[in-house]
Each structure stands twice: as C-alpha cells, then as structure tokens.
Design brief:
single chain; about 325 residues; alpha/beta; Peroxisomal Thiolase, Chain A, domain 1; 2 domains; 5-stranded mixed sheet; 12 helices
C-alpha cells in the first residue's frame, strides 16, 4: 500500500534576530520581559518590517520550500504539488502557493498548488492532505508542504501583545511516495474544529464581510485584532486528549512516541502537557526562544531543528499537534 514519507526539510526567517530588549527600543512599547522569557519562552524573533527587509509571505514560503528541495536533493521541476498552509496570505487572491510555484518552476506545468487557511493549524492540516494525495495519486512524484507566517505585517503600532508574541517564519517538507516495505511513512491524522469561537482573535477586515474602507481605517478596525480573551488553559485541556485520540486512531500508544511537537505558543504549557502525557522533555522540541511565535510555520521549523540536532532519526514515530484561532486543530502521526 502506498504512503508518503518526508525526504527533506527546510526553513527560512528574515534578517537577523531581534532580542526582547531591542524590540522594546524599536517599537517604544513596554512589555513584561520576565513573563515573556520565563513563562512563554520567547527571547528573540525575526520580523522583516522592523529590519526594513522588503519580504513577505511568498518570499518566506519560497525560500523555505527551496531549502527543503535542496535538502531532499531533488530537481525542483519534478515537484508535482505545492500546498501552503497560512492565514497570512500574500494577497486575498490569487493564492500564495501559486506564487511559490511560479518562482520555483518558472512556467506552466502539470503542478497542483493551493493554499490552506486553518490559522495556526495550517501546516498540520496541509501535511495530512498532502500525504493522502501523494499516497493516492500516481502522478505525484514529489509534494512540497509549507507552513508560513507573516502576522507581524498585520500588527498595528502600539500593540504590545502582538509585537511581543508574533514573528515571521516558514518551514517546509518534501514528500515522496513509498510503500509498506519502507519503515518511513505517514500513518494518519485527526482534525478538530469549533466554529463558534471564530470571533476571538484574527484579521477580520479585508474580506467580503468587512472590505477595507476609510471608515474602517479611521476606527482602527483593521489588521490583527484580539476581540475576546482566549481561555488561558485551552491548549492544556486540548492537547493531551487529542494526542491520545490520534494515537488510538492510528493503533498506537503514548509509549510508541519517539518525538512530539506542539504549536510553539507557550513553553510553560508544553512542559505541563508533556508531564500530563508522561513524556520527558527530551521527546519534544521547542524553538520559541529563537523565533518567537511563527504560527503555521512553527511546527515544520521545530521539526527541521529536531532533525538537524539529531533528536529524530529514521524510523522514529513522530506526532504533530497544532491548534489555532477559529478554532482549528490538526494532528499528524508518522514514521520519519
């Protein structure tokens, strides 16, 4: 039976890192530095607009995809599918994945490409879709799945929360079809959602419901908006049972897990969740200290680090758990 395996990973962040103290100076906004570093775990981040770098979503995604393709040692012209998971697109239309295809392949080809907006669960959902497409479509030789985040482009001046937390970045994987004789391959996933919570946090202006007008701009009702406080314990309550559910669906137990990566929003929550699951911290990877919160980009970025640091090896059973506003939740189980 055919399945998809990861054969390459890559990531990209713009410019040099911006430590917390420099961020304070650049933005003129005061932050709770102790809470940010000791609790949430963020010590620095990369933000194109604060470095004066003229790059946005399509640039980040393209460079992460190119890095993954180079890591896989394949010809970029052999890629048959690009999927981009992001809720910070280059444009409302056309989608950002087609821009990546155009920049990498440079011409019309029988290459599929599409965007998936599942907020910060965008990569996990895209990975699930991409792996299933690779396994079932004989015409797909390689697929590139990207998670990308450019939320700082939507953060307004003076927004202490947004400036402190959100950062730019992208991660990507290359998928290849393989069979049951290969120890590596995608096993399964589980999605979850609750659309009654759509109005907590997001970018609400610019679509058909609320087009950008002078009135909207004057009211400040544009860009990133935090309309309602998110429950502080939501992921603490959400992630442990979801981990158990997706493992059960894949006929595995927590003892089978070699490495697990969560949405990189809060290190203290990840520490607590690992304790609830009975797993040592050595079986997870956290990168918010280096990159801040990079939404849909954070899980593939963290996985790239886990591989390069030797924390994951071929045949290891890995789990991704991702959640974001809306709310969307995605999870993946695979053998690397």
């Amino acid at each position: 039976m055919a399945k998809a395996k990861i054969i390459g990973t890559g990531m990209y962040v713009p410019g040099t890192p911006i430590p917390n103290k420099e961020l304070w100076k650049l933005t003129g906004v005061e932050f709770d530095e102790e809470k940010l570093e000791l609790g949430i775990g963020i010590k620095q981040r990369h933000m194109a607009k604060l470095r004066g770098i003229p790059e946005t979503t399509a640039d980040f995604a393209t460079k992460a995809a190119q890095a993954a393709i180079a890591d896989a040692k394949i010809d970029p012209m052999d890629v048959s599918l690009f999927i981009l998971g992001s809720d910070t697109p280059e444009y409302i239309s056309p989608g950002s994945a087609v821009l990546v295809q155009g920049r990498i392949q440079g011409k019309q080809m029988l290459t599929g490409c599409f965007d998936l907006n599942c907020s910060c669960a965008g990569f996990a959902t895209s990975f699930d879709v991409g792996a299933r497409m690779v396994a079932t479509d004989p015409s797909i030789k390689y697929a590139v799945v990207i998670g990308c985040y450019n939320m700082p482009a939507f953060i307004k001046d003076g927004d202490a929360f947004g400036l402190a937390i959100f950062a730019d970045g992208a991660g990507a994987v290359v998928l290849q079809k393989t069979d049951d004789n290969d120890i590596s391959g995608y096993i399964g996933g589980q999605l979850m959602s609750d659309g009654t919570q759509w109005d907590f946090i997001g970018v609400y202006a610019g679509g058909t419901k609320k087009p950008i007008t002078h009135e909207i701009l004057d009211k400040g009702e544009y860009g990133f908006q935090n309309l309602k406080p998110l429950p502080g314990d939501r992921n603490l309550k959400l992630w442990p049972p979801l981990t158990q559910q997706v493992l059960e669906k894949c006929h595995l137990t927590i003892n089978d897990v070699d490495h697990i990566i969560f949405t990189q929003i809060n290190k203290s929550v990840i520490v607590k969740v690992m304790g609830i699951l009975g797993l040592p911290m050595e079986k997870t990877t956290t990168i918010m200290d280096k990159y801040g919160y990079t939404g849909s980009g954070c899980i593939p970025m963290a996985f790239h680090h886990a591989l390069k640091e030797g924390k994951v090896k071929r045949g290891d059973t890995c789990v991704f758990i991702a959640s974001g506003s809306g709310f969307y939740v995605g999870s993946n189980v695979f053998n690397y």
